[in-house]
Amino acid sequence: MSGTDTPGTPRFAKFDLGTVAGELPEAWRSTVVATAAGVNVKVLRMDGAPYAAESHGFAEGLLVLEGRMNLDVAGEIVSVGAGEIIVVPAGVPHAVMPGSHGTLVILDPADSL
């Protein structure tokens, strides 16, 4: 959703991230909602299933909007609740543990796709 001053020229963009996540066809498949200041704002739905370990060549921000995510960060289990963000440094392996549920926002560089 966006507001416009003139037809075809948006002056802002507004999204209901919970609604976007709820409308995704499957859990654990993120979609880019917007890009701001060189950062992708992605949203996904967590459904209780685990997500395999991964690492990236960039720091990744993981913001839980609602629910809870239990994250294994290089062997340490970290619980991230609604309204909390964890920033995983570049190169650090991380995996989502079973039981994680809710809405997750991922912040990563726009050129990482």
What about the largest sheet? Answer: 8 strands, antiparallel
String of helices and strands: EEHEEEEEEEE
Work out the radius of gyration. 15 Å
How many individual β-strands? 10
Structure characteristics:
eight-stranded antiparallel beta sheet; two-stranded antiparallel ribbon; 113 residues; 1 helix; mainly beta; Jelly Rolls; single chain; 6% helix
Description:
By secondary structure, this protein is mainly beta. It has a single domain, classed as Jelly Rolls (Sandwich). 6% of the residues lie in helices and 58% in strands. The protein is built from one helix and ten strands; from the N terminus they run ββαββββββββ. Strand 3 and strand 4 form a beta hairpin. The longest helix is centred in the first third of the chain and has 7 residues.
Can you lay out the helices and strands and say which pair or pack?
Elements: E1 2-6, E2 9-13, H1 17-23, E3 31-36, E4 39-47, E5 51-54, E6 60-73, E7 76-81, E8 85-88, E9 94-96, E10 101-109
Antiparallel strand pairs: 1-2, 3-4, 4-10, 5-9, 6-7, 6-8, 6-9, 6-10
